[in-house]
Amino acid sequence: MSKEIVIGTRESRLALWQANWVKDCLQKLAPAYSFRIKGIKTLGDKNLDTALAKIGDKGLFTKELELALLRGKIDLAVHSMKDMPTILPEGLVIGAVCRRENPGDVLISRKGNKLEDLPPGAIIGTSSLRRRAQLCHYRNDFKIINLRGNVDTRLGKLESEMMDAVVLSFAGVHRLGLGDRITQLIPLEVCLPAVGQGSIGVEIRAGDEEMQNLTGKIDHHESRLAVTAERALLRKLEGGCQIPVGALGTVDNGRLLLEGVVASLDGSKLVRSSWSGSAEDAASIGVQLAEKLAQMGAGELLRSMRQENCHNV
């Protein structure tokens, strides 16, 4: 009888798609095992009426899955990499960073307008401080409103709440077969993505060699290096509250280029730069870019935002 591996996941349609994708890949590569998916509700799923920044961002969509993993109730936890805190609980490691989908954001507008064509004072829905800050820097007339919920819920609110547009990740929209709804791929020059966006992560218990060997079969080395650099940058910059940071690492011929941005919440101030080096020095590249951004003014920006944000949470 084959050994059963229990895969933990959030219960949204997108999360289940990702977990099933991991399950199918592993089943093909390791047919000696059988796999079962176990849905688990996280704090972020239970509280959909409050802005993410006000709930606190550490492990909102991962903590309950990680507890189940530590307690042996599941063998693997599947996450969106962008939801994973930069510091994992003791006893857990990332077993796989899967091949990355297009990491960018997309605009879905009610009347088919691109960003540059939206009317003055256009109402755009997003729960992301990163998107809010960069979009307001691009056009300071935009009115950004908080929009929570799964992809289907957000698209429904686009119509029911008469917003002009919503901003979502390309990966999520594409994976759910909703690519025909996309109005525009938002240029990376306008909006850098969230750290890890577009990649699926598989978390396992540290020291579990069997699961390490299993998940290693779907680890994509270049995606891992790019995401490692992004996470190192965020870890160096962050301080306990949600902050508007965007980053994108790209690997080409053994070289890694990391771009990063920090902006004020209203978009009036924005610091953006890049750093490159050997891809195998991914973590170091992230730290060096974070230090460069801090010297360019991001440090002061983040200090003032933390004081304001943390007091309001």
Strand and helix layout:
Blueprint: E1 3-9, H1 13-29, E2 33-39, H2 43-46, H3 52-55, H4 63-70, E3 76-80, E4 92-97, E5 105-109, E6 123-125, H5 129-138, E7 143-145, H6 151-160, E8 165-169, H7 170-175, E9 184-185, E10 200-205, H8 209-215, H9 221-237, E11 245-252, E12 255-263, E13 270-278, H10 282-312
Parallel strand pairs: 1-2, 1-3, 6-7, 6-8
Antiparallel strand pairs: 3-10, 4-10, 5-8, 5-9, 11-12, 12-13
GO biological process, one term: protoporphyrinogen IX biosynthetic process
Catalytic activity: 4 porphobilinogen + H2O = hydroxymethylbilane + 4 NH4(+)
Organism: Pelotomaculum isophthalicicum JI
Tell me what you see in this structure.
This protein has ten helices and 13 strands. Strand 6, helix 5 (129-138) and strand 7 (143-145) form a beta-alpha-beta unit. It folds into three domains: 1-100 and 199-219, Periplasmic binding protein-like II (D-Maltodextrin-Binding Protein, domain 2), CATH 3.40.190.10; 105-185, D-Maltodextrin-Binding Protein, domain 2 (3-Layer(aba) Sandwich); 221-313, 2-Layer Sandwich (Double Stranded RNA Binding Domain). The protein is an alpha/beta fold. It is 36% helix and 24% strand. It has helices at 13-29, 43-46, 52-55, 63-70, 129-138, 151-160, 170-175, 209-215, 221-237, 282-312, and strands at 3-9, 33-39, 76-80, 92-97, 105-109, 123-125, 143-145, 165-169, 184-185, 200-205, 245-252, 255-263, 270-278. The strands form three sheets. The protein has a five-stranded mixed sheet with strand order 2-1-3-10-4, sandwiched between helices. The protein has a five-stranded mixed sheet with strand order 7-6-8-5-9, with helices on both faces. Strands 11-12-13 form a three-stranded antiparallel sheet.
